[in-house]
Amino acid sequence: MNRRNFLKSAGIAGGAIAASPLLANPLFSHANRGSARGQHDLPYRLMDLHVHTTDEFTIEDVVAVGEKTGIQFGVVNNVAPWKMWDDEAVKKFFDETFPYPVYVGLQPMVLGWSKRLSPELIRKADYVLMDPQVLPNGNEYGDELKIWEIATYIGDVEFFMQRYFDHTIDVITNPEPLDILGWPLYLPGSVARDYYKLWTKERLSRIIEAAEARGIAIEINNTARTPHEEFITMAKRAGLKFTFGSDTRNYTMGRLDYCLQVAKKCGLTQSDFFVPKRVL
Ligand SMILES: [Zn+2]
Predict the structure, then answer these.
(1) What are 170-180's pLDDT values in tens digits?
(2) Model-level pTM?
(3) How far apart are CA 98 and CA 83, in angstroms?
(4) Quick one: fold of 75-272?
């Protein structure tokens, strides 16, 4: 669907929402949509704190989807050698994004990222979200794995799991700024069939203990459909907060079907969610 058609069709639903003062309130706006999202009654404001912009899908497009759906977006950009890697680039991202009614976050991809940036600039971000998906020495060949890639090379599964688990703990305990652990427990397609076996209870507990000690929130990732019910329930019991994130960069942003399904199963309510402090 091209942008014009998308905005046109989204405009139909948006008009209906705008007509009702109750539904115009983001706290209730999700209650009356036609999809699976409309059938739940979770009493919290829907936020998708993990979306990106691209040259084809700009901040104006994000705002348009937010207006039509009532979902509050948080736009993040990667701090990485291949994206933003100095103050100037981050400042440009902030200048381009802060004027809009969205939260603005940083998503570093490699440990040591904060040494590249001035602390005052980092503090301006509404939050920092990091995931463990760039995995140094991820296999016995010493490769740096980008585990979202379909060709992610795993020789010995247990070697990979130990490295991935250790790196997840490193991301959490690393002293650099962090508010949200993204893509938790995601596994590459080649080993994902063994998810419940590979994520042992002990590994889950240790991740939760580390997150609790650090005081960070756990992203429920709609694209990865992770983490699972057991982990969320354990994390909730430990008092951890959650966010919803889609990691999308097109018109699908804000679709949160998995997040809503699993949140309902786990009995999450408004107080279980991390909300950035800035008033929009
Ligand atoms: Zn992302």
Answers:
(1) 999 999 999 99
(2) 0.86
(3) 18
(4) TIM Barrel (3.20.20)
